[in-house]
Write a structure and sequence with these properties.
Blueprint: H1 10-15, E1 22-27, E2 33-38, E3 41-43, E4 48-54, H2 58-66, E5 71-78, E6 81-92, H3 95-109, E7 119-132
Antiparallel strand pairs: 1-2, 1-5, 3-4, 4-7, 5-6, 6-7
Length: 134
């Protein structure tokens, strides 16, 4: 997966490090949106969003079904302040990449993600950022 560097103002980067939840929007095979709350991490250096989940979760299955052009949107809101990160997504169970996702999640949320035998990470190469009141 190619990664784009995303330039964000410091205030937006700070907002995206707060331990909030966000919504992740993926597209079902029929094209309808699937929106679900998630915890995530964002690496501004690489422009990468990581969402840990189960391989059998609808969001992961939607990304896999979308193939290499699967696009997603992740939106974190706090009152009337919000940031949306959009980009291409892929699902991986590669042990080093999964370990990095778990490490970052644990740092951000001060607890490990729920343990699952089929744990995977959805990686999003962010190529568009929208925000308001940040």
């Amino acid at each position: 997966m190619s990664r784009a560097t995303v330039e964000l103002p410091a205030v937006t980067q700070a907002f995206l490090t707060r331990p909030h939840t966000a919504t992740l929007t993926t597209l079902r095979p029929d094209g309808s949106p699937h929106v679900t709350p998630v915890r995530f991490t964002f690496d501004a250096t690489t422009g990468m969003v990581r969402v840990t989940t189960r391989a059998g979760a609808r969001k992961a299955r939607n990304v896999v079904a979308g193939g290499p052009t699967a696009r997603v949107a992740l939106c974190q809101a706090d009152g009337f302040r919000w940031a949306t990160l959009e980009g291409r997504a892929a699902v991986t169970d590669d042990p080093p990449r999964l370990a990095e996702a778990v490490r970052r999640y644990t740092v951000r949320y001060r607890a490990a993600p729920p343990a699952s035998l089929d744990l995977v990470v959805i990686e999003v190469a962010v190529d568009r950022v929208l925000s308001l009141n940040l």
